[in-house]
Amino acid sequence: MPLPHFLLMVLAVILAAGLTIWVANAVGIPLVALGILALIGAALAHLTTRDHRHH
Fold it and tell me: Which residue windows are transmembrane per the record (predicted)?
């Protein structure tokens, strides 16, 4: 992947994260609750994408 594309992807992720935190704060969702939801989402993504290989 060319460096400019990679940097644009990193910028897009940072902007999306900032927008998410800003909107959550604007509607009154506590930052702790947002963090817990992010951890639950990460756990679900991990568990649903496992390849079930035994190491």
Answer: 6-24, 31-49
Give how many domains the chain has, as a whole number.
Answer: 1
Total number of residues shown for the chain: 55
Per-residue pLDDT of the chain (55 residues; tens, 9 = 90+): 899 999 999 999 999 999 999 999 999 999 999 999 999 999 999 999 877 666 5
| Cα angle 53-51-17, degrees, rounded to a multiple of 5 | 135
Q: Domain of 27?
A: 3-52
Cα separation of 44 and 47, whole Å?
A: 5
| Placement of tokens 């604007």 in the chain | 26
In one letter, which amino acid is 36?
Answer: I
In angstroms, rounded to a whole number, what is the distance separating the alpha carbons of residues 18 and 26?
Answer: 12
